[in-house]
Each structure stands twice: as structure tokens, then as C-alpha cells.
What does this fold into?
Amino acid sequence: MYVTETVPVAILLLVAGRDLVLGAMLIVMKRKGIPPFTVTYLGKAATFNLLYALPLLLLTKNSSDALSTFSFVMGWAFAGWGIALYLYTGVSYARTGFRELKGR
It folds into this structure.
């Protein structure tokens, strides 16, 4: 997505950073015998939104017709909600992880 300049680098770094932080936390939790996070419906909704957003945003680069305009609007709508939910659930998972680690 970065190569096509469809999504700003800052957004890509936020999404990747969330995954790196939670991935590192999962490694620590596993070493201490703590089970992984329980996936929430908001987490699933975030993934759903991002999975719809990225193909729609890619469609915006290939033409300037009505499909491109529609794809741009819908892609960023899905992306906005997806990114917000993705970061919100990331914070929620991290808080749960820290609470579990602190309790052990």
C-alpha cells in the first residue's frame, strides 16, 4: 500500500506498531504461562473493516471515473472505522495483558 502511496506512512506505522507491541506482549505472556488474549467482537470488526478498506483504496489509483470516486469514499470510510477500532482494541488488549502480567 505504501508503494502506491494510497495510505499514508503514519497510518501504516500505527497499524504495524500495534501488532508489534501486542506480539511482543504475547511472547512474554506465553513465557509466564498466561493464555493469549481473548479476541473481542470489536477486534473482529476492526479486521473486517480493514479487509474491506484496502482493496477499495487500491481501486482508486487506477482510474478517475465514478468507480474510483465511490471506492475512495467507501475505502476511507472503512479505513477510518477500521483503524480507530484496531487501535482501540489494541489498547484494550494491552491493558488486559499488563493486568495479567502484573497479577502473576
